[in-house]
Amino acid sequence: MEHQLQIYNTLSRKKEHFKPINPGMVGMYVCGPTVYSDVHLGNCRTFISFDLIYRYLLHLGYKVRYVRNITDAGHLEGDRDEGDDKFAKKAKLEQLEPMEIVQRYTLGFHDVMREFNTLPPSIEPTATGHICEQIEMAKEIIAKGYAYEVNGTVYFDVEKYNKEFPYGQLTNRKLEELLEGTRELGGQDEKKGRLDFALWIKAKPEHIMRWPSPWGWGFPGWHIECSAMSSKYLGDTFDIHGGGMDLQATHHTNEIAQSQACNHKAPVNYWMHTNMLTVNGTRMSKSAGNGFLPGELFTGNHPLLEKGYSPMAVRFFMMQTHYRSTLDFSNEALQASEKGYARLMNAIKLLDNLKTSSTSTSNIQELKKKCYEAMNDDFNAPILVANLFEGARIINSVNDGKENISAEDLQTLKETMHNFVFDVLGLKNESSNTSKDKALQGVMDIILDIRKEAKAKKDFATSDKLRDDLAKNNITIKDTKDGVTWSIQE
Ligand code: AMP
Ligand code: ZN
Fold this sequence. Notes:
The protein is globular. The mean pLDDT is 93. The protein has 16 helices and 15 strands. By secondary structure, it is an alpha/beta fold. It binds adenosine monophosphate (AMP) and zinc ion (ZN).
């Protein structure tokens, strides 16, 4: 396949020409969500970034096997193999079965991914569905001498592994530096080394999610699920492995160690990491309490939001920053994205009715080339967007009679705009409404006009009643400095 795609590889810390193991085919694994609560917008950024990468690989003509797992077991509260299992804890709190928690948040995750127009992965394996594979892998690692059992728990021996393989290679750290950042082992610790981590954990009597194993009843550690499932579906060495940057130092470092110890092969050729979504400079996270849920973002129902933003405006907002840069949330940036998205959609609508001439005033072939160059440069979506805005400018100029375009160039411009805006950036036209949507918009315009008149007459009883009655019907209205907005609470 002829292309110049360069991918930044976290492992080599440089951009490399992309060459898959099997010509024309790509194996890609992305660490999926831990489904014990709703995904926040930060999680969505990572999955939307990989959707862009997936879409571009498909656009280049690759057959991609995209595996994104669901973590539904073995994720403890503490990051040192201690604390409660997050699923069991939430289940107790809500008086549900752990698998009811898993089902609820998996469905919610899929809904959100659909709203953002992400393509579903080819395979979405769950940790609980692959307990046997994880046990087999832990057994193999013990047999190869890199893991040991203590009282029903199996630990990976990091110091022994590091004698043969560079354990800290993904973050470019030596074992001594990593050891400095960890606390001394206490008398009650079972493990031999401070960096050792659990492959399998003995279940305490009260632990609900448990499975039988050669070491007694227990449950898997978090890292082993990704090693076991990626090798099952993509082979011992595959092309791309991704996730958020926060997974590099522990989760992915441990994945490499487990797979390398088990198979004596490096598991992944290109490690890709997306940067974080921040709010006022602080990483958005479940624990920091600054995580907007996508639903809150769409309705504007959150103190930090001036109004609601549509899924495509939010997706476009994310596309305007490179996936390896941090992206700070702000109302201003989202409002600018709303306008930019509308500008692109309006220009695309004009494409079908443009008049052609014998020659073109702008270089359309060059524009198309620049779009490919941007994406080939480590999926540089912001540069692509700048080129698409140039495309929109040309469309508007031709439409206004200020520029000319030939029939052949118009065809190229149409293809370029459609391919990159819809197939690669994954945007869709939100205003291509059904007749029901249009009727609802008309009725809402009438109601909001009545409310505006009532307010002008200081008839607050009527204006409040309209707002409250709409709320009872799951329609939220919000007064903003630019007027009134409304949204449906799903
Ligand atoms: P989790 O459900 O916490 O395991 O996270 C799922 C994915 O979201 C992982 O790849 C994380 O690295 C990623 N992630 C978590 N917080 C953020 C954030 N603020 N911005 C971007 N990605 C994030
Ligand atoms: Zn993972």
